[in-house]
Amino acid sequence: MSHAMQMIVAGYVKVRDRRALTDLLAHRRKVLSELQAVSGINPANAISAVHDEIGLIEAGLEELKAPPGTLPENDWN
What we know:
Strand content: under 5%
Structural class: mainly alpha
Number of strands: 0
Number of helices: 3
Shape: elongated
Helix content: 55-70%
Mean pLDDT: 90
Radius of gyration: 15 Å
Oligomer: single chain
Low-confidence stretches: none
């Protein structure tokens, strides 16, 4: 897994920037769908890397979830 992506996600989690994480997740999902549509080459390694990055981003979003029974934070930042 990319150390750079780990650092990016950790930074967004630290500053509690849920919007940046959701935008990053949407981008990676778009990249994944484009890779899956590629023909003529074998993009298996790239697909695997993007799957790993998506898991990392989703884990970051989980860290930002409000505990059960609390009010969610504003998503305005």
